[in-house]
Amino acid sequence: MKINFLLLFFVCLLAFSCKKKETTTTKDITPPPNTASPNSFTLKKEGVPYTANYVFVSQVDEDALGFETRIVSNEVSNNTYAGFIRRSIQPGTYVLEDGESEDFSLLHAQDENTLFGWEEGSLTVLSNDTVAKVMHCTFEVLLYNDDCDGSCPQITDGEMTLHY
What we know:
Distance between the termini: 49 Å
Radius of gyration: 23 Å
Mean pLDDT: 82
Number of helices: 1
Structural class: mainly beta
Helix content: under 10%
Largest sheet: 10 strands, antiparallel
Low-confidence stretches: 1-31
Strand content: over 45%
Shape: globular
Number of strands: 10
């Protein structure tokens, strides 16, 4: 029985390896935007709309969710946003001050050389269903880096829905 199986295996292997090679064209391996994804992330930076085509959500630790957004899947540092939000956060409005919060953080990579944290703003948790594991929030923040010199970009109309 083992010999028959091995013989059949080698015959199949030979048959597949002897097939004429077909010419192949290089295909773009970037996955298409997942329009069926339940996660969403939109905002306006200095009034210019931004809608992420890719929103990745992961559990960082017991009570923290990480999120990362991109317009182009494999461009990690080209107009992307990332951050964390506390998984157990309750609905309500949270004031964000001095670039530090135990509840929420947002970072922005404008390009490879221009990175921003945030200085101040607000986060409004509209809902956080810990059974269905879905959170809906709005936010506004003033971005910050040491090179802004008082003219840092403002994020308005921020809105995200995260499934975790």
